[in-house]
UniProtKB/TrEMBL annotation:
Keyword Transmembrane helix annotated: yes
InterPro entries: A/G_cyclase (IPR001054), Nucleotide_cyclase (IPR029787)
GO biological process: cyclic nucleotide biosynthetic process; intracellular signal transduction
Transmembrane segments: 21-42, 62-84, 96-116, 145-164
Coiled coil keyword on record: no
UniProt domain Guanylate cyclase: residue ranges: 192-321
Molecular function GO labels: adenylate cyclase activity
Protein name: Guanylate cyclase domain-containing protein
Length: 374
């Protein structure tokens, strides 16, 4: 069985957010400082040849200093990102977050530069770099290196901020496949989809007003996010008060986990009923439709890009979900999905026979799914 990089990366990012933030920053900055050090090293050697100045130097200390700076700077920024985003500035202005982070990044870089200059370089690496020579860097040269480093770090900070935003937009584990062109052309996949839709949404919106209703939706989706990680579900999109998730079947050991996911969400909101009633005045409940089938995944758009799934599977799943009100059901799945499930003793599957779905000529077999009560 292939390793699902996207699902594993997403699961790790949610389970270990601080470590994940630090790993992203340290990896990027180690590579970035390695590039900078190599540029300076070969530039110095080039100018030495132009002016016929022999500078017997070793490249090994360059690698050491790059790794040290990248590790320390990346770890500092990873911690700051986590601390500012999740603690101090959660739900606050993005502009204020960027401004404060930029100030801290600048201060950290100044401290890092002088730490490297006064401690790492002077005490450990100077004699390793300039081999068997009394050559020394004048203080004026360090001033130029400081300015060059600040400019370089400024532009590299823009790049990593962009990469982090892309990672946030598409979700952890998607950026690398995206850069490798996995979704540049339509790619056929078999997936299980679930459409989760808030029950009585119109009533809730009318009762709460649009601002409080939006806060309710925000909290619901946040908790569904956390639950989805445990069950390996990938969030596809949010549409109003509905969230669409999926599982690639080639990475599923047990497809029954998809049913477990729905009831984990259902039981969570039942368990948190007092909390939701106190905070929002209503108890959110979700109806859902599930189906399995082939879809094509492709990157679409120009001004605004996203990874989209296309195919009849999505249409059928949406139509199945729409049957929940008619059949007074919380969860309805297709017969195609039911046929691949094993060890279903925890649930009761009630056949609804073949039913017509809006917009389709061919009828589809569906099942209501209930939890077995002990």
């Amino acid at each position: 069985m292939k390793i699902n990089y996207t699902a594993n990366a997403r699961k790790y990012a949610f389970q270990h957010p601080l470590i994940s933030a630090i790993l992203i920053q340290t990896t990027f900055w180690i590579i970035a400082f390695l590039f900078l050090s190599l540029i300076l090293h070969y530039a110095a050697n080039g100018f030495g040849k132009i002016y016929q100045v022999a500078i017997p130097s070793s490249i090994k200390p360059i690698i050491v200093i790059s790794f040290a700076m990248g590790l320390l700077y990346g770890a500092s920024l990873g911690f700051l990102d986590f601390f500012f985003y999740r603690k101090l500035f959660k739900g606050k202005s993005t502009g204020a977050l960027i401004l404060v982070k930029s100030i801290f990044y600048f201060l950290v870089m100044i401290m890092m530069f002088f730490f490297v200059k006064e401690i790492i370089w002077e005490r450990f690496l100077y004699h390793l770099y300039f081999l068997n020579t009394s050559f020394n860097l004048p203080e004026e040269a360090w001033d130029d290196y400081f300015k060059l480093t600040m400019i370089y770090v400024f532009f590299m900070s823009i790049m990593i901020s962009f990469l982090i935003q892309v990672n946030t937009k598409f979700g952890p584990g998607v950026l690398i496949p995206l850069l490798m062109g996995r979704y540049a052309n339509p790619k056929e996949e078999e997936r299980i989809f679930i459409f989760l839709d808030l029950k009585s949404s119109t009533t809730h919106a009318e009762k709460l007003g649009h601002v409080k209703y939006s806060k309710l939706i925000r909290d619901c989706f946040l908790h569904i996010n956390y639950i989805s990680v445990k069950y390996g579900a990938e969030i596809y999109q949010y549409v109003g008060d509905e969230v669409v998730l999926s599982w690639p079947t080639n990475h599923l050991k047990n497809p029954l986990i998809t049913i477990d996911f729905y009831f984990a969400c259902y039981n969570y909101f039942v368990e948190k009923k007092p909390k939701y009633l106190k905070k929002h005045g209503v108890l959110p409940q979700f109806k859902a439709g599930m189906h399995i089938g082939k879809v094509t995944a492709v990157e679409v758009g120009d001004v605004k890009r996203e990874i989209a799934f296309h195919g009849d599977t999505l249409n059928v799943t949406a139509r199945i979900q729409a049957k929940c009100n008619e059949l007074d059901a919380d969860l309805i799945i297709s017969e195609d999905l039911k046929s691949i499930l094993e060890n279903t003793k925890s649930y009761e599957f009630i056949s609804q026979g073949l039913v017509p779905l809006k917009g389709r000529k061919q009828e589809v077999g569906i099942y209501k799914v209930l939890q077995e009560t002990s």
